[in-house]
Amino acid sequence: MSQAAPTILVCLAATPRAAAVVAIARLWAELWEAELSFLHVTENVANSRDRMARYIPSDVLPLEEIHFKTGRPDWVICNEARRSGARLVMLGALEQEGLVTSILGSVARRVARRAPCSVLLLTRPSEFRLEHLVTSVAFNKSSTQMLQSVLKIAKRHELQSLHVIHEYDSYSRLLRIIGNRDMGDDDYRDQIAHEEMFQLSELLASLDTEGLPLTAKCLDGHIGQEAVDYAHDHNADLLVIPAPDRLGFWDRFFKHPTETILEHLPCSLMLYRETKEQAS
Questions:
Q1: What is the spatial distance between Cα 183 and Cα 161, in angstroms, rounded to a whole number?
Q2: In the predicted structure, residue 102 carries a pLDDT above the cut 70
Q3: Could you tell me if 128 and 122 are in contact, meaning their C-beta atoms sit under 8 angstroms apart?
Q4: Which of 158, 165, 166, 167 falls between 20 and 30 A from 38, CA-CA?
Q5: pTM of the model
């Protein structure tokens, strides 16, 4: 029996950016050989249908292909992703939240934290071009699987640059070994940097990166913030990171690395989360 095509759940808002989101969704569907499902969550279906018709011409996407549902948006989106077995949820996101929403969380960020699959947050859909891609990896199975997916995407695009970075915090590691005075702090930092780069090189050597405009870099500092700064400095179009198992309430205040990135998106962001179907 042939395997069913994966589904991308595309969440549309009744805004001028909706048509651009549709165009990006079709590009990703081609890359992933996936089917598209379009969703709009609203309090008033009739009004939303009229507004959506103004922003998305019928020759771009007929209204009949959009599923209109009511309810709390993040709950509806995550439940629909589970019901449809979606591999990816795609939706727009503001680049930086205001004071109130940085505490409560926007719809896009709540979906990013709770979705059962990967999530793609688009910051500027109308300007999106996939030419410069940055991905931040850890040394574990999930990151390896994420990197394999990133390399597949990279090979199907004519990327100008692909940056694979690894963030680490040498200061925290130094605190754990501070009792050993045989080496100075600078020596320890050099040794840690060498070990991290060796592991990153080993990871990349195990994968097919031939022909890709690849740069590998290990970044010492605050995990999460280093990825934000690097993506910004290198004009990234997309930053790809592994999604954490679960982001809880206290992660928002004690700054889980993913929260740092979600609060200050340097560009469009993809959180890679393997579904149960992929794992099996």
A1: 38
A2: no
A3: yes
A4: 158
A5: 0.86
Query: Which token pair is 80?
Result: 């629909």
Question: Is 42 in contact with 52 (CB distance < 8 Å)?
Answer: no
Task: Provide mean pLDDT across the span 67-94.
Answer: 90
Least confident of 28-42, 103-117, 224-238: 103-117
